[in-house]
Amino acid sequence: MKSPVPDLAPSDGEEGEDRTPLLQRAPRAETAPVCCSARYNLAFLAFFGFFVLYSLRVNLSVALVDMVDSNTTAADNRTANECAEHSAPIKVLHNQTGKKYRWDAETQGWILGSFFYGYVITQIPAGYVASRSGGKLLLGFGVLGTSVFTLFTPLAADFGVGALVALRALEGLGEGVTFPAMHAMWSSWAPPLERSKLLSISYAAQLGTVVSLPLSGIVCFYMNWTYVFYLFGTVGIIWFILWIWLVSDTPETHKTISPYEKEYILSSLRNQLSSQKSVPWIPMLKSLALWAIVVAHFSYNWTFYTLLTLLPTYMKEVLRFNIQENGFLSAVPYLGCWLCMILSGQAADNLRAKWNFSTLCVRRVFSLIGMIGPAVFLVAAGFIGCDYSLAVAFLTISTTLGGFCSSGFSINHLDIAPSYAGILLGITNTFATIPGMIGPIIARSLTPENTIGEWQTVFCIAAAINVFGAIFFTLFAKGEVQNWAVRDHHGHRN
Prior knowledge:
The chain is mainly alpha-helical and about 500 residues long. It has helices spanning about 40-65, 70-75, 105-120, 125-135, 135-150, 155-160, 160-175, 180-190, 195-200, 205-220, 225-245, 260-270, 280-285, 290-315, 325-355, 360-380, 390-400, 410-415, 420-445, 450-475.
């Protein structure tokens, strides 16, 4: 039977030409307007959801600095004092009522990493459930559960380290369903030539980090650390109400979408989705295109999670900024990353639609920039000593360039198998969560005295892993829908 997808590669193993459907010979539907469209409304609402999630994920990184008894840190000799105190002594303007805990560095590492022990469990199940029954409720209740558990963080800390670790793992369970669920929704909502733009908007949640880090620092400074968790937990509950009210799983079930936009979306995806009811697990897991994303995702997240969880500690113990400055300066790199994600999404789709760059070429180039660039500047940041302004500049450039990956390997799941994008993201994110589980622990074990030399080792390891991932993805990635993603189990295309 002749394939309805004329530009599909002849086999999964062939490189061939990257002829993504709708880019060359296949007819294109005229683009529906962007303004007030249902698909962009979904992107912006998803953005605010992931904004909340990143806030919930990173606020502990700042609050933990204020939760730990400074005498414990001093007793551990964890500040090397290689750099001069950068901040002038500040007068405390409030009565600090938040409790202090005697948690050593190893304990802090386990607390920071515990989130990912829950996060890793729900990735693949969430992708499968979302592909079968839609991602709206799954994502919504994932955010709600994470928000509610966050509200109980001060209580769990009072009960002890075990309770706090367990609570953070439960938060991870809730948050673990969100990215696969959103990917599954985009498989029904994102036209191929708008994927980079729509996904870069919805996943540009680095702004949550940008706001959460300094705001958490301010709350800790003027009030106490408990209010950090009350604030962001409440915001998450409010977002859940809006999400349930305004969002639909597919264009067909959306109540206010225009008929023109609905037809535009459905016609653009008609030849890319599979009608088979069961998941082709064996061909999927044997696909080198999938494993290229796995390796890239793992490698990128090693650097990302190491900085996400430990940058506030690095700012305090090595560069020696106070807690108020700590939050602002820790957030600066993620502001750059957020801007880069938005701009790179626009650039990626323009290169494909207007300049006829192949999907594979765009994904490779953006991944190379987004992984090798950060590696270079991360290493540089470790070797400039106590030059505070240059350290912040290099860390900012490193994290900013990482934003290119949002239009690189991060959305490649939708290029190779849109019908199973949620499942694929669940698989890749499972592997990519491992760095979040072990990265902070390894980094803490490598920095017993918090010297510049110790942190140079941490940065060099992260950079080397990043470079390896970039090379592997460049060699083995694909940009076209794979045969197993559109054919039935007897080898026939749908």
